[in-house]
Specification:
Structural class: alpha/beta
Number of strands: 7
Radius of gyration: 11 Å
Strand order of the largest sheet: 1-7-3-2-6
Strand content: 25-35%
Largest sheet: 5 strands, mixed
């Protein structure tokens, strides 16, 4: 699996044809094509970032992660 840093993950923002990836708890997930992540945006959050705090505040919590494909690991 690929290892991502803050800088390398930022390229995966879901804009201009780029895939949309998010990092949560040290794992990077692909949200490209997910209907909830149109153009790399989801309820005020943007792809290409670590979203540990954001998912903690969401109504669904981490339960949705099981439905996503993990594409790498994240180190801040």
């Amino acid at each position: 699996m690929e290892k991502f840093t803050k800088e390398s993950l930022a390229k995966y923002d879901g804009k201009n044809g780029n895939p949309a990836y998010v990092a949560i708890d040290g794992k990077v997930y692909d949200v490209t094509g997910n209907s909830h992540w149109t153009n790399g945006e989801h309820h005020g959050f943007s792809a290409g970032q670590a979203l540990d705090e954001g998912i903690a505040q969401s109504p669904h919590g981490k339960s949705v992660l099981a439905k996503l494909n993990q594409v790498g690991t994240y180190e801040d």
